[in-house]
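# step 3/5: fold
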Amino acid sequence: MSKVLKGIRVLDFGRYIAGPFCGALLADLGADVIRIDRIGGSEDRFVMPVTEEGEGALYLQVNRNKRSITLDIDSPEGKDIVRRLVLTADVVIANMPGQTLVKLGLDYETLKALKPDIVLVAPSAFGGSEAMNERLGFDGIGQAMSGGVHVSGLEGQPTKAMVPVVDFATALACAMGALAALYERKTSGLGQKVDASLLQTALNFSSGLLIEEALLGLNRQGTGNRSPIAGPSDIFKVTDGWIIVQVIGSAMFKRWARLVEAPELIDDLRFASDQTRGENGQVLSACMAHWCEGRSQEEALAALGLSKIPAGPVHSPQQVLNDEEIAESGAFQWMDYPGLSVPIPIVLAPMNLSRTPLQVTQRAPTVGEHTDQILREIGYSHEKLDSLRGQKVI
């Protein structure tokens, strides 16, 4: 089957999520992605450990379809191997502070001098601002600095998302940037640097709030799960769990009011628009909560569905895995991994192509699993590999 990025080689120096998931997406599209690991394994490999060797859940997800080489990239011999690998590559991914990139010879100017058509994908926490260039940051800091956390949770208690939405979205942006740079390279013959940052991604998420605040100065506060801009839009308890219901627009509101047997709300001026329904959302949420009392999740969702009201179950992680509809959608690919007695559910990419589909064909690599194979491809002999291993370069 044809692959979009067949023949493209990517060197992935990424860590944690933003860099590695970008590499995984390029690998899903058919690129040969080589993960550069520290000897013994890089630190992000062991976050949320689930295997006997300590590999983490996120590592298994964002490093599928890759090969792994272990390398001391601080050593002169390691830097020489990096240079030789760069000469064979099309894309380098490195989410590191700017000074670290320069120290390791992975900054764009150094890479460009070595290979003018190379594409460097360099996500960071805060972008190119001199004031923040060397500061370290993770997903939650991007969320918090964007204004989004301030309006999450309850007033007086900001709450961030517990899943790393900013990291994953930054990786998606990086993958799009890499594809754009490779596409442009066909015309110019030149590479370029792709910048992205966690903060800029998070600011995009908060952009509506920021524009509204600049113009209206509303100083919104947290309202829990209840939307401040429409209603009823909230999470509600049913007899066997929770559901989320989101009513937006007057036509949908009228259908909802008839469903909950409160047609008098349709002509109530407090609920004349999405804006006023959001402002008076506590009343609507209380009405919806009363309707949910005594109904099971299945019963409530069935009735809402018949009235064409968007709603869904609030799943625990185990319930997600047990959901037959999600499984039938093709959301997961179950894969074996060394040392595990059961397969793991790799979540497939959020997009696909009909004629040249994204594919997950390989599990995440064990530490340095392909070191000898990759170095032999660029000309290292068995004897030289033994020597490098003895020097602890690989």
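# step 4/5: annotate
The chain has a mean pLDDT of 96.
# step 5/5: archive (pending)
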